[in-house]
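SEQUENCE, STRUCTURE TOKENS:
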Amino acid sequence: MPIGLIALALGGFGIGLTEFVIMGLLPQVAADFRVTEATAGWLISGYALAVVVGALGLTAAVTRFERKPVLAGLMVLFIAGNLVSAVAPDYALMMAGRIIAALAHGAFFGIGAVVAAGMVAPDRKAGAIAIMFTGLTAANVLGVPFGTMLGQAAGWRSTFWGITGIGVLALAGILTFVPKTGSGETAAGSASGGLRGELRAFRSGQVWLSILVTILGYGGMFGAFTYIAYTLTEVTGFAATTVPWLLILFGVGLFIGNTLGGKAADRNVDRTLLVVLAALVAVLVVFALAAENQPLTIAAMVLLGGFGFATVPGLQMRVMKYASSAPTLASGANIGAFNVGNALGAWMGGVTITAGLGYTSPIWAGAGITLLGLAVMAFAAATAKRQNTLQRDSALPPGVDSSANSDETELQTA
């Protein structure tokens, strides 16, 4: 395994920690800045919106540059954002620090996925992307609980100082171990290159279908997860003090799902996504029906994280595949799509609770959203298979039977 992947994963760990650890520190931050918890909550919402902006705008702005220095520059931006958060004297500057760090988030994962895939053999690309995203899953399993405990023991600013240090280590790793790569222009392989070449990737209907599956599939999982603390305490009957440990189980599921999902996607992307999304729908339905049962709920937490994040390497790989030789901006757009899915799922879950449908209703909403994502994925896979068959048949001489090579072609194009 290239050691550069570890450097990218460490960057992902710091970014994931920045995104999620604030949830456990929100009461302290609100009290320190003398704002309401609702106002402090914008430190989460503002971050998510800035991720989308960075995933599209910042990625588009740097497509003409070599990717290694771009990744290093994004990590410098990330370090600066967390440093501002650590020393912020007021709420406004804290929000500015969050936005600065978030701008690096989407572009880092979007460009980093392209770099990670280029560091390994063609049949290991999804696995390489999964390794990079392992940092994000590890942030949920280990970083968030320990970051929260550090903030509670030494003040919330200490957590952001720690994240700043992680960013410095990741920057050193990227500069030392990540190999030089081409720019979006050189990768495009065309005279136009640059941003124009990257934008051509969006002419592919399969790119748009993949992004839609990302929004719906990930949004369904996140919709159920957003209000999971209420479900665990108000429906399942767990004490509030056990919720952090249950969330660690969810994080363990994320880690396992990300790893296995990447390996499966390297064998067949579309088949993996169809199976995983169908399993995720089933897990959500069973969870909603059995939420009052504690043992089943514990199992559902692990499976929800597992199948929910098993889609990530495959979805990212699928977008990059159909973006062909100009995958950087499409990859960044898909990172933005994950955050759009987060917002969609959280909004739908909030609507169901406000409507008085109870604390299992976000899980049902998540199942519905994911089912819609499964339907889109089935349509995308069928369309891609039909297009591949037509292209293969049109390339063969008259009288030659194309069925002999159909299985091999399916594996290559799915």
The chain is about 85% helix and 0% strand.
